[in-house]
Design a protein that fits this description.
Layout lengths: L7 E3 L2 E3 L3 E3 L14 H9 L5 E8 L16 H16 L4 E6 L17 E2 L9 E5 L5 E5 L4 E2 L2 H20 L4 E5 L5 H6 L15 H19 L4 E5 L14 H15 L3 E4 L5 H11 L2 E5 L4 H9 L5 E4 L1 H5 L3 H7 L27 H5 L1
Parallel strand pairs: 3-4, 3-14, 4-5, 5-10, 6-9, 10-11, 11-12, 12-13, 13-14
Antiparallel strand pairs: 1-2, 7-8
Helix pairs in contact: 1-2, 3-5, 5-6, 6-7
InterPro entries: Aldolase_TIM (IPR013785), OxRdtase_FMN_N (IPR001155), Oye-like (IPR045247)
Pfam families: Oxidored_FMN
Protein name: Alkene reductase
Length: 363
């Protein structure tokens, strides 16, 4: 019976264990270029079976938060190369999460103050982003009203993801993960409550609302191969101003079936609601299945043992425990992370969490 510490073959990528470092925005790229501190941060956590990076914008238009990295310029690719080299030297494996925020953005984050984009011209009521105030200082700001993407704009998004995937390979990544959850662009198209377009990319038909994501998956697979591509979803998270909609379960199961046909490397899911739906989603996808969302070592081990997942992603535990795999293996206690350094800043609360030491813990 597999355990959390058993090896796993992920599309030909040999993982020494099933512990995944989940994608977490840490806002340490003020110029959108990964730096040396990011290389240290990820390399410290290289004992994970797999590292998934923080959300990384595929274009300047796709940015949704301040101080997040991109992968669409030569400088960004070079910066990420320092990260992947450091992780690989430490014996790790790393994929980049490719991201377009869609309507969850603000003009002061985007080129020339332009409006964000989405499936329709409807703002996310009550949603805010880490951006800049009118005086240019960091501030939490309400998202702007987006422009509805036209057909040329959607083709441009697909091309941006394709090019970002190629850039990821050039930067030394072992693969990519397309972010189709958390209320960002792809989920905005998937959500029938928001996406009321009257063309083939929206409305009631499930296939229409899945079209943008699936055409992007096809483009990325064509660029770098299916074994290097994963997808992240959050079916019942209802984040970023999105809410429940008709045929919700059928929509997500339809996506899982379509991704199964494409034989991508893995499906990464959280916010799955009832256990029965989680089982149906896993069965429908049929490939490597990764769960995330508040797991402890004990609950993750139970999920692996029960066959509910092949891999489990840990977020917050990885902030303060760079040696999480060793702590799980030896049943050492986990350190707690201070929230004040979650987003932005320097090395404090980022690269200064030490590995476990019995003497240090006693002190």
């Amino acid at each position: 019976m597999p355990t959390l510490l058993s090896p796993f073959d992920l599309g030909g990528l040999a993982l020494p264990n099933r512990v995944v470092m989940a994608p977490m925005t840490r806002a340490r790229s003020p110029d959108t270029v990964p730096g040396q501190s990011m290389a240290r941060y990820y390399a410290q956590r290289a004992s994970a079976g797999l590292i998934i990076t923080e959300s990384t914008q595929v274009s300047a238009q796709g940015r949704g938060q301040r101080d997040t990295p991109g992968i669409h310029t030569a400088a960004q690719i070079a910066g990420w190369r320092t990260v992947t080299d450091a992780v690989h030297r430490a014996g790790g494996r790393i994929v980049v999460q490719l991201w377009h925020a869609g309507r969850l953005s603000h003009g002061r984050l985007l080129p020339a103050g332009q409006a964000p984009v989405g499936p329709v011209a409807g703002a996310a009521d009550g949603a805010t982003v880490h951006g800049y105030g009118p005086d240019g200082t960091p501030a939490q700001v309400p998202v702007a009203t987006p422009l509805a993407l036209d057909l040329a704009g959607m083709h441009r998004v697909i091309a941006e993801f394709r090019e970002a995937a190629r850039n990821a390979v050039a930067a030394g990544f072992d693969g990519v993960e397309l972010h189709a959850g958390n209320g960002f662009l792809f989920e905005q198209f998937i959500n029938a409550g928001l996406n009321t377009r009257e063309d083939t990319y929206g409305g009631a038909p499930i296939a229409n609302r899945l079209r943008l994501l699936l055409e992007t998956v096809d483009a990325v697979v064509d660029a770098i191969g299916r074994a290097r591509v994963g997808v992240r979803i959050t079916p019942f998270g209802h984040l970023g101003g999105l809410g429940p909609f008709d045929a919700e379960k059928a929509t997500w199961l339809g996506l899982a079936g379509a991704l199964c046909q494409r034989r991508i490397a893995y499906l990464h899911a959280s916010d799955l609601g009832p256990a029965a739906f989680q089982r149906d989603l896993r069965k429908t996808f049929g490939g490597a299945f990764m769960l995330a969302g508040g797991y402890t070592p004990a609950s993750a081990s139970a999920a692996i043992a029960a066959g509910a997942a092949d891999l489990v992603a840990f977020g917050r535990p990885y902030i303060a425990n760079p040696d999480l795999v060793a702590r799980i293996r030896h049943d050492w206690p986990l350190a707690e992370a201070g929230k004040e350094a979650f987003y932005g800043g320097g090395e404090r609360g980022y690269t200064d969490y030490p590995p476990y030491s019995a003497s240090r813990t006693a002190a």
